[in-house]
Protein backbone atom coordinates (compact mmCIF):
# COMPACT_ATOMS: atom_id res chain seq x y z
CA UNK A 1 0.00 0.00 0.00
CA UNK A 2 1.60 3.30 -1.11
CA UNK A 3 0.86 6.14 1.24
CA UNK A 4 3.31 8.53 -0.45
CA UNK A 5 2.39 12.09 0.49
CA UNK A 6 0.62 11.16 3.73
CA UNK A 7 1.02 14.11 6.12
CA UNK A 8 1.26 13.04 9.75
CA UNK A 9 1.16 15.30 12.79
CA UNK A 10 3.02 13.80 15.74
CA UNK A 11 2.13 15.01 19.22
CA UNK A 12 4.01 14.32 22.44
CA UNK A 13 1.32 15.51 24.86
CA UNK A 14 2.06 17.51 27.95
CA UNK A 15 0.60 20.46 29.76
CA UNK A 16 3.89 22.23 30.53
CA UNK A 17 5.63 21.22 27.27
CA UNK A 18 3.82 19.68 24.31
CA UNK A 19 5.90 18.52 21.36
CA UNK A 20 4.37 19.07 17.92
CA UNK A 21 5.66 17.88 14.57
CA UNK A 22 4.56 17.36 11.00
CA UNK A 23 6.22 14.95 8.58
CA UNK A 24 5.35 13.74 5.12
CA UNK A 25 5.69 10.15 3.97
CA UNK A 26 7.67 9.44 0.84
CA UNK A 27 8.16 6.20 -1.09
CA UNK A 28 8.88 3.14 1.02
CA UNK A 29 10.23 4.14 4.41
CA UNK A 30 11.28 7.65 3.37
CA UNK A 31 9.91 10.36 5.66
CA UNK A 32 10.49 14.08 5.26
CA UNK A 33 10.33 16.62 8.10
CA UNK A 34 7.94 19.54 7.58
CA UNK A 35 7.85 21.29 10.98
CA UNK A 36 8.72 20.69 14.61
CA UNK A 37 8.24 22.71 17.77
CA UNK A 38 7.16 22.79 21.38
CA UNK A 39 4.20 24.58 22.93
CA UNK A 40 4.87 25.71 26.49
CA UNK A 41 2.32 26.80 29.05
CA UNK A 42 3.26 28.59 32.29
CA UNK A 43 2.89 26.44 35.40
CA UNK A 44 1.63 29.47 37.33
CA UNK A 45 -1.38 29.85 35.03
CA UNK A 46 -4.66 28.10 35.92
CA UNK A 47 -5.59 24.85 34.18
CA UNK A 48 -8.25 26.37 31.92
CA UNK A 49 -5.86 29.05 30.68
CA UNK A 50 -3.15 26.48 29.97
CA UNK A 51 -5.56 24.21 28.10
CA UNK A 52 -6.77 27.18 26.05
CA UNK A 53 -3.18 28.07 25.10
CA UNK A 54 -2.55 24.46 24.10
CA UNK A 55 -5.79 24.31 22.11
CA UNK A 56 -5.05 27.55 20.27
CA UNK A 57 -1.54 26.38 19.36
CA UNK A 58 -2.55 22.94 18.11
CA UNK A 59 -5.45 24.43 16.14
CA UNK A 60 -3.05 26.87 14.48
CA UNK A 61 -0.68 24.01 13.58
CA UNK A 62 -3.53 21.93 12.14
CA UNK A 63 -4.76 24.90 10.10
CA UNK A 64 -1.25 25.75 8.86
CA UNK A 65 -0.03 22.22 8.05
CA UNK A 66 -3.27 20.36 7.18
CA UNK A 67 -2.30 16.89 8.49
CA UNK A 68 -4.09 13.81 7.14
CA UNK A 69 -3.71 11.96 10.43
CA UNK A 70 -2.52 12.58 14.00
CA UNK A 71 -0.22 10.24 15.95
CA UNK A 72 -0.20 10.91 19.69
CA UNK A 73 1.44 9.23 22.63
CA UNK A 74 -0.94 7.06 24.63
CA UNK A 75 -1.10 8.07 28.29
CA UNK A 76 0.37 5.61 30.72
CA UNK A 77 0.63 5.68 34.50
CA UNK A 78 3.87 7.40 35.50
CA UNK A 79 3.42 7.23 39.28
CA UNK A 80 2.41 10.85 39.80
CA UNK A 81 -1.39 11.06 39.59
CA UNK A 82 -1.35 14.86 39.22
CA UNK A 83 0.99 14.64 36.20
CA UNK A 84 -1.13 11.91 34.59
CA UNK A 85 -4.31 13.95 35.10
CA UNK A 86 -2.77 17.09 33.59
CA UNK A 87 -1.51 15.07 30.63
CA UNK A 88 -4.96 13.50 30.24
CA UNK A 89 -6.56 16.96 30.12
CA UNK A 90 -4.05 17.98 27.45
CA UNK A 91 -4.70 14.81 25.42
CA UNK A 92 -8.44 15.53 25.50
CA UNK A 93 -7.91 19.01 24.06
CA UNK A 94 -5.50 17.71 21.40
CA UNK A 95 -7.74 14.83 20.30
CA UNK A 96 -10.76 17.14 20.21
CA UNK A 97 -8.93 19.50 17.85
CA UNK A 98 -8.35 16.62 15.43
CA UNK A 99 -11.92 15.30 15.82
CA UNK A 100 -13.40 18.71 15.03
CA UNK A 101 -11.58 18.57 11.67
CA UNK A 102 -12.41 14.92 10.98
CA UNK A 103 -8.72 13.95 11.26
CA UNK A 104 -8.17 10.35 12.40
CA UNK A 105 -6.09 9.90 15.57
CA UNK A 106 -3.81 6.93 16.29
CA UNK A 107 -2.31 6.41 19.74
CA UNK A 108 1.01 4.70 20.38
CA UNK A 109 2.70 3.68 23.63
CA UNK A 110 6.23 4.92 24.21
CA UNK A 111 7.59 1.36 23.82
CA UNK A 112 5.80 0.95 20.44
CA UNK A 113 7.41 4.15 19.18
CA UNK A 114 10.85 3.18 20.53
CA UNK A 115 10.64 -0.24 18.89
CA UNK A 116 9.55 1.23 15.55
CA UNK A 117 12.29 3.88 15.49
CA UNK A 118 15.25 2.13 17.12
CA UNK A 119 14.33 -1.55 17.07
CA UNK A 120 14.49 -1.51 20.88
CA UNK A 121 11.34 -0.94 22.93
CA UNK A 122 13.50 0.22 25.85
CA UNK A 123 15.69 2.73 23.98
CA UNK A 124 16.63 5.80 26.01
CA UNK A 125 16.03 9.45 25.04
CA UNK A 126 19.58 9.84 23.67
CA UNK A 127 19.27 6.77 21.41
CA UNK A 128 15.87 7.94 20.16
CA UNK A 129 17.15 11.43 19.38
CA UNK A 130 20.12 10.02 17.47
CA UNK A 131 17.86 7.71 15.44
CA UNK A 132 15.24 10.35 14.60
CA UNK A 133 18.00 12.79 13.56
CA UNK A 134 19.45 10.12 11.26
CA UNK A 135 16.10 8.91 9.86
CA UNK A 136 14.97 12.42 8.95
CA UNK A 137 18.42 13.57 7.77
CA UNK A 138 18.41 16.52 10.17
CA UNK A 139 21.55 18.66 10.44
CA UNK A 140 21.24 18.73 14.24
CA UNK A 141 19.21 16.85 16.86
CA UNK A 142 15.78 18.32 17.61
CA UNK A 143 15.54 19.95 21.03
CA UNK A 144 14.04 19.70 23.56
CA UNK A 145 13.26 15.99 23.90
CA UNK A 146 9.53 16.70 23.47
CA UNK A 147 10.22 17.86 19.89
CA UNK A 148 12.22 14.71 19.12
CA UNK A 149 9.46 12.57 20.65
CA UNK A 150 6.82 14.28 18.50
CA UNK A 151 8.88 13.54 15.38
CA UNK A 152 9.34 9.91 16.47
CA UNK A 153 5.57 9.51 16.90
CA UNK A 154 4.94 10.87 13.39
CA UNK A 155 7.60 8.64 11.80
CA UNK A 156 6.27 5.63 13.71
CA UNK A 157 2.84 6.21 12.21
CA UNK A 158 4.23 6.69 8.69
CA UNK A 159 5.89 3.29 8.94
CA UNK A 160 2.84 1.60 10.47
CA UNK A 161 0.24 3.23 8.18
CA UNK A 162 0.56 0.69 5.32
CA UNK A 163 -0.13 -2.22 7.71
CA UNK A 164 -3.03 -0.35 9.33
CA UNK A 165 -4.49 0.39 5.88
CA UNK A 166 -4.22 -3.30 4.87
CA UNK A 167 -5.88 -4.36 8.12
CA UNK A 168 -8.69 -1.85 7.62
CA UNK A 169 -9.22 -3.06 4.04
CA UNK A 170 -9.42 -6.68 5.18
CA UNK A 171 -11.99 -5.95 7.86
CA UNK A 172 -14.16 -3.96 5.46
CA UNK A 173 -14.35 -6.70 2.82
CA UNK A 174 -17.38 -8.95 3.38
CA UNK A 175 -16.59 -12.64 3.61
CA UNK A 176 -18.00 -15.03 1.06
CA UNK A 177 -21.63 -15.72 1.80
CA UNK A 178 -22.04 -12.58 3.94
CA UNK A 179 -24.11 -9.64 2.90
CA UNK A 180 -22.37 -6.24 2.83
Automatic annotation (TrEMBL):
Binding site for Mg(2+) 2: 73
Cofactor note: Binds 2 Mg(2+) ion per subunit.
GO MF assignments: crossover junction DNA endonuclease activity; DNA binding; magnesium ion binding
Record's subcellular location: Cytoplasm
Main location: cytoplasm
Protein residues bound to Mg(2+) 1: 12, 146
Alphabetized InterPro entries for the sequence: RNaseH-like_sf, RNaseH_sf, X-over_junc_endoDNase_Mg_BS, X-over_junc_endoDNase_RuvC
GO (cellular component) term, any one: Holliday junction resolvase complex
Record-linked Pfam families: RuvC (PF02075)
Role played: The RuvA-RuvB-RuvC complex processes Holliday junction (HJ) DNA during genetic recombination and DNA repair. Endonuclease that resolves HJ intermediates. Cleaves cruciform DNA by making single-stranded nicks across the HJ at symmetrical positions within the homologous arms, yielding a 5'-phosphate and a 3'-hydroxyl group; requires a central core of homology in the junction. The consensus cleavage sequence is 5'-(A/T)TT(C/G)-3'. Cleavage occurs on the 3'-side of the TT dinucleotide at the point of strand exchange.
Name of the molecule in the record: Crossover junction endodeoxyribonuclease RuvC
Annotated source species: Corynebacterium testudinoris
Amino acid sequence: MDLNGLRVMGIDPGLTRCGLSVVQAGHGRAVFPVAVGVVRTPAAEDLTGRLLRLSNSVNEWMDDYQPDVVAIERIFERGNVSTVMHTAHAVGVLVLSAAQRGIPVHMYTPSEVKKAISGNGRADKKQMTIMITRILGLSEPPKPADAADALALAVCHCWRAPLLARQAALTSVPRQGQHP
